[in-house]
Amino acid sequence: MVQRLPLVRQGMPGCPCMEEQVAGLEVPVSLKYQVVHSYGPGPMKMTIVMVAAYILDCVLIGTKPCKYFQLNSRYFNNEKGVFSKIDLDKLIPIEWRLAQQYDDAGYIPEHFPVFLKPEWGQNASGIYRADDPVSLREIRQQIGCSQVPYIIQQGALEAREFEIFSLQHHRNKGEYSIFSVTEVINESERNPINGIHNRDTTYHDITEQFSEPQKQILWNTVCQIGQFGISRLSLRANSTEDLLAGRFHIIELNLFTPMPIHMLDPGYTVRDWLGMSLGYMWKLARLTKCRDKTLEEYPIYTKMMLYNRPGRLANLIRKNR
Fold first, then answer.
1. CA 270 to CA 305: how far, in whole Å?
2. pLDDT in tens, 101-119
3. 80: helix, strand or coil
4. What is the pLDDT of residues 7-56, one digit of tens each?
5. 186 and 242 part of one domain
6. Rounded to the nearest 10 degrees, how much is the dihedral formed by the CA atoms of 182, 183, 189, 193?
7. Is 248 within the bounds of a domain?
8. Are residues 234 and 163 in the same domain?
9. What is the DSSP string of 109-159?
10. Which structural domain range is residue 117 located in?
11. Which end of the chain is more exposed for a tag (fewer CB within 10 A), N or C?
């Protein structure tokens, strides 16, 4: 079992005066993050190691690494060339769904904040938050020349943000081989746009707070939305009890290249994340080999990378795929 550095959170998330206990010394939470976050690698180094390990594992068991992109092919919109946020939103049960639609310049929400997101993007790129009609108008002026369709989504009112990462078991698709719950902490502002490039965002692996039956409840939550080979669900709830009781709202569903975000917990050392990376990529390679080969396959990676790219060559490739 991975041993994490002792991080004991005191107080309530979102409280500026919250302090944490690190190795017996109490320090302000902002200082603690600066000290501890240096133990692990950055997301880019982590990605390089995981991709290299995955490719090697695929070669060893005799499967094509590129078939990774077919794990969720049934949810890919081949006409649009993306995993459409609008399409995926329709999979979410209405009680967990946030109101969202394609942005219309004439539409003024009844409640704020709202978030404007490109129909496809990664790592929170291109996302804006509007706290009132004035800021909404300013944002629309900024993105008015964008050829990427934008979606306007109602902000979630719940106090805490969580990420649920899961990987299907390669033999029994009704079970998981990897499952984690991560709490996302950002005390810089209300309703932040969290992401791996936001310096105020930190991730804390809280998976061990859940018993096996409780993990199964959350896994069943994921399965109610879809049969995903690999996925990461971003949602907001007021507590872990509410999370288990189904009292939450889903912010986003990532099916393209979801990172096991719990590995960015600042309490993990390089040895910890390296061990997890190697184990996870072995399981991912086995799932790739045992994927459902009866499903129609699409040039998902190519289309996602060419999505809205200008130029005749890009248009030609899109049409011929």
1. 31
2. 999 888 999 999 999 999 8
3. coil
4. 433 333 333 333 333 333 333 333 333 333 434 567 888 899 999 999 99
5. yes
6. 30
7. yes
8. yes
9. -SSS-EEEEESS-STTTT-EEESSHHHHHHHHHHHTT--S-EEEEEPP--S
10. 99-155
11. N
